[in-house]
Design goal:
alpha/beta; 6-stranded mixed sheet; 4-stranded antiparallel sheet; 11 helices; about 40% helix
Length: about 290
């Protein structure tokens, strides 16, 4: 499986006085679901802007689908990389949900018949048919974010980058967005999730990169990274509550790398079964 993105010894400075990113290197494979985490100011937002070509590396290079972002136009990169903003209001500007989804398709040069076909399919896939004529800014924040993701997905980019897509949303809306993204990943899309929500990282990302002070401190399977409580603490982060609970129960025989409630239930059942008294046949327990 080839690399969709190659980040090679990237340094970046806005002013020339100090570096926001310092020698960052990593690859993203086709079809991966990668999370990037780190405290505020760690360099996450700068890295996202670099990946879509909005800014260029001060040193080093970034290759996206074989394109050198230092030389390629942002519009060309945007055909391969869909970027979903943290605040959907920054992305929505058309008069209706239907027009929002159709806008980028027309910019790609699709004929009206094809635009209509893709719009109808996308609205159906995202359960937005009943909202097609609604002015997007009248929608709830969760539905606005659904429209933002739908508009990008309609363009069929190979890579999706999501910047804090569930910020300010309740649990139901957050789950809806993440399940939609999971479905896109299952269909072969490469996903990069930037978030402070460790629960979503644990639930969806197979691999996680930890940034701190412009450097990569860890690049590992999510389960292994969350098991390193001390490393997360040094970076001002905490694992999901269920992982924290599992680590607190390690002396009971619970695995410290548990990352879901379902796994915790299985671990507890194993511990309880292992410690249950064994009674002789035909005798009542005392």
């Amino acid at each position: 499986m080839g690399s969709e993105i190659e980040v090679e010894e990237v340094w970046f400075s806005y002013s020339g006085d100090g570096y926001v990113l310092k020698g960052v290197s990593f690859d993203v494979k086709e079809g991966e679901f990668l999370a990037i985490i780190g405290r505020n100011g760690s360099g996450k937002s700068t890295l996202m802007r670099l990946l879509v070509g909005l800014i260029k590396p001060t040193k080093g290079r970034i290759m996206v689908k074989g394109m050198d972002t230092r030389k390629e136009k942002v519009s060309r990169i945007a055909r391969e990389v869909g970027f979903i903003f943290q605040n959907p209001d920054d992305q929505l500007f058309c008069r209706s949900v239907e027009e929002e989804v159709a806008f980028a398709l027309r910019n790609l040069g699709l004929g009206e018949g094809e635009v209509e076909e893709v719009v109808n399919r996308t609205l159906r896939d995202f359960a937005l048919q009943d909202l097609r004529g609604v002015y997007p800014r009248f929608l709830s924040r969760g539905d606005k974010q659904k429209v933002s993701v739908a508009a990008i997905a309609a363009m069929d980019p190979s890579i999706l980058i999501l910047d804090e897509p569930t910020t300010g949303q309740d649990y139901r809306d957050s789950m809806t967005i993440m399940e939609l993204v999971k479905g896109l990943n299952a269909r072969g899309k490469t996903v990069i999730l930037v978030t402070h929500d460790m629960r979503n990282v644990a639930a969806y990302a197979e691999r996680t990169i930890l940034l701190d002070d412009g450097r990569i401190l860890a690049d590992a399977p999510t389960r292994r990274l969350f098991a390193d409580r001390e490393l997360l603490r040094r970076c001002g982060l905490a694992p999901p509550q269920i992982t924290d609970l599992a680590q607190s129960c390690a002396d009971m025989g619970i695995r410290p790398d548990v990352i879901s409630v379902e796994e915790m239930e299985e671990e507890l059942m194993e511990v309880l079964c292992a410690h249950a008294p064994i009674h002789r046949e035909g005798k009542e327990p005392p």
